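Incident log, support desk, overnight shift.

02:14 A customer reports that sequence design results differ from what the structure should imply. Their input is reproduced verbatim below. On-call engineer (initials T.W.) acknowledged and began investigating.
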Protein backbone atom coordinates (compact mmCIF):
# COMPACT_ATOMS: atom_id res chain seq x y z
CA UNK A 1 0.00 0.00 0.00
CA UNK A 2 1.07 3.59 -0.64
CA UNK A 3 -0.13 6.62 1.35
CA UNK A 4 0.62 10.16 0.11
CA UNK A 5 0.00 12.92 2.65
CA UNK A 6 -0.22 16.56 1.52
CA UNK A 7 0.44 19.20 4.18
CA UNK A 8 1.70 22.72 4.87
CA UNK A 9 3.38 21.51 8.09
CA UNK A 10 5.28 18.31 7.19
CA UNK A 11 7.22 18.50 10.49
CA UNK A 12 4.04 17.60 12.38
CA UNK A 13 3.96 14.19 10.70
CA UNK A 14 7.58 13.16 11.06
CA UNK A 15 7.66 11.58 14.51
CA UNK A 16 4.20 9.90 14.56
CA UNK A 17 4.97 8.13 11.28
CA UNK A 18 8.59 7.19 11.88
CA UNK A 19 8.71 5.30 15.16
CA UNK A 20 7.80 1.84 16.39
CA UNK A 21 5.36 -0.20 14.26
CA UNK A 22 4.96 2.48 11.58
CA UNK A 23 8.72 2.72 11.07
CA UNK A 24 9.09 -1.06 10.90
CA UNK A 25 6.16 -1.40 8.50
CA UNK A 26 7.88 1.01 6.11
CA UNK A 27 11.29 -0.61 6.52
CA UNK A 28 9.69 -4.02 5.92
CA UNK A 29 8.13 -2.77 2.68
CA UNK A 30 4.51 -3.27 3.85
CA UNK A 31 3.68 0.39 3.23
CA UNK A 32 5.20 3.38 1.52
CA UNK A 33 4.35 6.72 3.14
CA UNK A 34 5.24 9.93 1.28
CA UNK A 35 4.82 13.38 2.76
CA UNK A 36 4.43 16.30 0.35
CA UNK A 37 5.03 19.90 1.37
CA UNK A 38 2.34 21.95 -0.33
CA UNK A 39 4.75 24.89 -0.59
CA UNK A 40 6.76 22.88 -3.14
CA UNK A 41 3.76 23.25 -5.47
CA UNK A 42 3.52 27.06 -5.34
CA UNK A 43 4.83 29.30 -8.12
CA UNK A 44 5.55 32.56 -6.29
CA UNK A 45 8.70 33.60 -4.47
CA UNK A 46 7.01 33.64 -1.07
CA UNK A 47 5.57 30.15 -1.60
CA UNK A 48 2.05 31.28 -0.69
CA UNK A 49 -0.44 28.55 0.18
CA UNK A 50 -3.23 30.65 1.71
CA UNK A 51 -5.24 33.77 0.96
CA UNK A 52 -8.06 35.91 2.37
CA UNK A 53 -11.58 34.49 2.11
CA UNK A 54 -14.12 35.95 -0.31
CA UNK A 55 -16.92 37.50 1.69
CA UNK A 56 -14.58 38.92 4.29
CA UNK A 57 -14.79 36.29 7.06
CA UNK A 58 -12.04 35.92 9.66
CA UNK A 59 -9.17 33.47 9.02
CA UNK A 60 -7.15 32.40 6.00
CA UNK A 61 -8.14 29.86 3.34
CA UNK A 62 -5.88 27.31 1.64
CA UNK A 63 -5.56 28.18 -2.05
CA UNK A 64 -6.72 25.91 -4.82
CA UNK A 65 -3.72 26.03 -7.24
CA UNK A 66 -0.97 24.34 -5.15
CA UNK A 67 -3.40 21.60 -4.04
CA UNK A 68 -4.54 21.04 -7.63
CA UNK A 69 -0.94 20.85 -8.88
CA UNK A 70 0.10 18.41 -6.18
CA UNK A 71 -2.88 16.06 -6.53
CA UNK A 72 -2.80 16.00 -10.34
CA UNK A 73 0.97 15.43 -10.33
CA UNK A 74 0.48 12.38 -8.08
CA UNK A 75 -2.45 11.13 -10.15
CA UNK A 76 -0.39 11.33 -13.33
CA UNK A 77 2.00 8.79 -11.79
CA UNK A 78 -0.50 6.20 -10.51
CA UNK A 79 -4.16 5.53 -9.87
CA UNK A 80 -5.48 6.54 -6.45
CA UNK A 81 -8.43 4.67 -4.93
CA UNK A 82 -9.35 7.56 -2.63
CA UNK A 83 -8.40 11.22 -2.30
CA UNK A 84 -9.24 11.91 1.34
CA UNK A 85 -9.70 15.29 2.99
CA UNK A 86 -9.57 15.50 6.79
CA UNK A 87 -12.44 17.65 7.99
CA UNK A 88 -14.57 18.04 11.14
CA UNK A 89 -17.69 17.81 8.94
CA UNK A 90 -16.58 14.58 7.22
CA UNK A 91 -17.91 11.07 7.90
CA UNK A 92 -17.00 9.93 11.43
CA UNK A 93 -13.87 7.75 11.37
CA UNK A 94 -14.09 4.27 12.89
CA UNK A 95 -12.58 0.78 12.69
CA UNK A 96 -14.90 -0.19 9.86
CA UNK A 97 -13.49 2.63 7.72
CA UNK A 98 -9.93 1.78 8.79
CA UNK A 99 -10.50 -1.82 7.64
CA UNK A 100 -11.86 -0.59 4.31
CA UNK A 101 -8.95 1.78 3.69
CA UNK A 102 -6.43 -0.95 4.55
CA UNK A 103 -7.65 -2.96 1.54
CA UNK A 104 -6.87 -0.13 -0.93
CA UNK A 105 -3.73 0.16 -3.02
CA UNK A 106 -2.99 3.91 -3.11
CA UNK A 107 -4.55 6.75 -1.15
CA UNK A 108 -3.95 10.49 -0.83
CA UNK A 109 -4.70 12.33 2.42
CA UNK A 110 -4.98 16.12 2.16
CA UNK A 111 -4.57 17.97 5.46
CA UNK A 112 -6.45 21.23 5.86
CA UNK A 113 -5.02 24.13 7.81
CA UNK A 114 -6.01 27.69 8.81
CA UNK A 115 -9.76 28.30 8.43
CA UNK A 116 -10.04 25.46 5.90
CA UNK A 117 -9.59 24.93 2.16
CA UNK A 118 -11.22 26.48 -0.91
CA UNK A 119 -14.48 24.55 -1.22
CA UNK A 120 -13.92 23.83 -4.93
CA UNK A 121 -11.11 21.45 -3.95
CA UNK A 122 -13.65 19.44 -1.97
CA UNK A 123 -16.17 19.52 -4.81
CA UNK A 124 -13.83 18.51 -7.63
CA UNK A 125 -10.76 16.71 -6.28
CA UNK A 126 -11.76 14.96 -3.06
CA UNK A 127 -13.48 11.55 -3.05
CA UNK A 128 -13.86 11.04 0.71
CA UNK A 129 -14.06 13.41 3.69
CA UNK A 130 -13.17 12.02 7.10
CA UNK A 131 -13.59 13.46 10.61
CA UNK A 132 -11.75 11.91 13.54
CA UNK A 133 -14.29 13.31 16.05
CA UNK A 134 -16.58 16.16 17.00
CA UNK A 135 -13.91 18.66 17.98
CA UNK A 136 -11.75 21.06 15.97
CA UNK A 137 -8.00 20.70 15.48
CA UNK A 138 -5.62 23.40 14.21
CA UNK A 139 -4.82 21.27 11.17
CA UNK A 140 -5.48 17.90 9.54
CA UNK A 141 -1.98 16.53 10.23
CA UNK A 142 -2.83 14.79 13.50
CA UNK A 143 -5.99 13.40 11.87
CA UNK A 144 -3.88 12.10 8.94
CA UNK A 145 -1.44 10.53 11.42
CA UNK A 146 -4.33 8.80 13.20
CA UNK A 147 -5.82 7.49 9.97
CA UNK A 148 -2.41 6.30 8.72
CA UNK A 149 -1.52 4.63 12.03
CA UNK A 150 -4.82 2.77 12.30
CA UNK A 151 -4.65 1.61 8.65
CA UNK A 152 -1.01 0.53 8.61
CA UNK A 153 -1.33 -1.72 11.69
CA UNK A 154 -3.98 -3.68 9.76
CA UNK A 155 -1.74 -4.45 6.79
CA UNK A 156 -0.81 -8.15 6.73
CA UNK A 157 2.68 -8.53 8.21
CA UNK A 158 2.87 -4.99 9.65
CA UNK A 159 2.20 -6.21 13.18
CA UNK A 160 4.44 -9.09 14.22
CA UNK A 161 1.60 -11.26 15.50
CA UNK A 162 -0.99 -11.00 12.73
CA UNK A 163 -3.81 -12.44 14.78
CA UNK A 164 -3.37 -9.57 17.21
CA UNK A 165 -5.08 -6.88 15.10
CA UNK A 166 -8.13 -9.09 14.68
CA UNK A 167 -8.73 -9.39 18.42
CA UNK A 168 -8.62 -5.64 19.04
CA UNK A 169 -11.53 -3.49 20.14
CA UNK A 170 -14.26 -2.81 17.55
CA UNK A 171 -13.51 -5.81 15.33
CA UNK A 172 -16.87 -7.64 15.49
CA UNK A 173 -18.34 -4.56 17.20
CA UNK A 174 -16.99 -5.73 20.56
CA UNK A 175 -14.57 -4.17 23.03
CA UNK A 176 -11.50 -6.25 23.83
CA UNK A 177 -11.45 -8.47 26.96
CA UNK A 178 -9.04 -7.60 29.82
CA UNK A 179 -5.45 -8.81 29.42
CA UNK A 180 -2.75 -9.54 32.00
CA UNK A 181 0.91 -10.52 32.26
CA UNK A 182 3.26 -11.72 35.02
CA UNK A 183 3.33 -11.64 38.01
CA UNK A 184 0.11 -13.59 38.56
CA UNK A 185 -0.17 -12.03 42.02
CA UNK A 186 0.91 -8.43 42.63
CA UNK A 187 0.36 -7.28 46.22
CA UNK A 188 -2.67 -9.57 46.39
CA UNK A 189 -4.14 -8.28 43.08
CA UNK A 190 -4.73 -11.56 41.28
CA UNK A 191 -5.04 -12.47 37.63
CA UNK A 192 -8.32 -14.35 36.90
CA UNK A 193 -7.74 -18.04 37.63
CA UNK A 194 -9.21 -19.24 34.32
CA UNK A 195 -6.37 -17.61 32.32
CA UNK A 196 -3.87 -19.87 34.04
CA UNK A 197 -5.94 -23.04 33.70
CA UNK A 198 -4.36 -24.06 30.39
CA UNK A 199 -7.86 -24.97 29.17
CA UNK A 200 -8.00 -23.01 25.91
CA UNK A 201 -11.68 -23.65 25.19
CA UNK A 202 -12.57 -22.31 28.62
CA UNK A 203 -10.22 -19.33 28.24
CA UNK A 204 -11.80 -18.44 24.91
CA UNK A 205 -15.29 -18.70 26.38
CA UNK A 206 -14.25 -16.42 29.28
CA UNK A 207 -12.74 -13.86 26.87
CA UNK A 208 -15.87 -13.82 24.73
CA UNK A 209 -18.06 -13.36 27.80
CA UNK A 210 -15.86 -10.53 29.07
CA UNK A 211 -15.86 -8.82 25.67
CA UNK A 212 -19.64 -9.01 25.56
CA UNK A 213 -20.15 -7.82 29.17
CA UNK A 214 -17.72 -4.90 28.81
CA UNK A 215 -19.36 -3.83 25.56
CA UNK A 216 -22.82 -4.07 27.13
CA UNK A 217 -21.87 -1.87 30.06
CA UNK A 218 -19.43 0.58 28.38
CA UNK A 219 -20.62 0.85 24.76
CA UNK A 220 -24.13 -0.62 24.38
CA UNK A 221 -24.47 1.35 21.10
CA UNK A 222 -21.99 -1.06 19.47
CA UNK A 223 -24.27 -4.03 20.14
CA UNK A 224 -27.19 -2.29 18.46
CA UNK A 225 -25.30 -1.87 15.17
N1 LIG B 1 -13.25 26.12 9.92
C1 LIG B 1 -13.29 24.71 9.93
C2 LIG B 1 -12.22 24.11 10.84
C3 LIG B 1 -10.83 24.38 10.39
S1 LIG B 1 -9.67 23.55 11.35
C4 LIG B 1 -14.66 24.24 10.38
O1 LIG B 1 -15.28 24.90 11.19
O2 LIG B 1 -15.07 23.16 9.93
C5 LIG B 1 -8.34 23.37 10.20
C6 LIG B 1 -8.21 22.03 9.56
O3 LIG B 1 -7.99 21.04 10.54
C7 LIG B 1 -9.42 21.53 8.79
O4 LIG B 1 -9.45 22.04 7.49
C8 LIG B 1 -9.21 20.01 8.80
O5 LIG B 1 -8.34 19.60 7.75
C9 LIG B 1 -8.50 19.79 10.12
N2 LIG B 1 -9.40 19.29 11.17
C10 LIG B 1 -9.89 19.98 12.22
N3 LIG B 1 -10.69 19.24 12.98
C11 LIG B 1 -10.71 18.01 12.43
C12 LIG B 1 -11.39 16.78 12.76
N4 LIG B 1 -12.18 16.67 13.82
N5 LIG B 1 -11.18 15.72 11.95
C13 LIG B 1 -10.39 15.80 10.87
N6 LIG B 1 -9.74 16.95 10.50
C14 LIG B 1 -9.89 18.03 11.27
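02:41 Re-run completed on a clean worker. Output:
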Amino acid sequence: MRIDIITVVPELLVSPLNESILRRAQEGGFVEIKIHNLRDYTDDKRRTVDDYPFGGEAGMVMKIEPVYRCITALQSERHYDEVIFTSPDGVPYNQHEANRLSTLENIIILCGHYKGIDYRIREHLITREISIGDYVLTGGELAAAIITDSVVRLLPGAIGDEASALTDCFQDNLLAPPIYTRPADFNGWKVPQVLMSGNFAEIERWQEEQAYERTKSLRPDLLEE
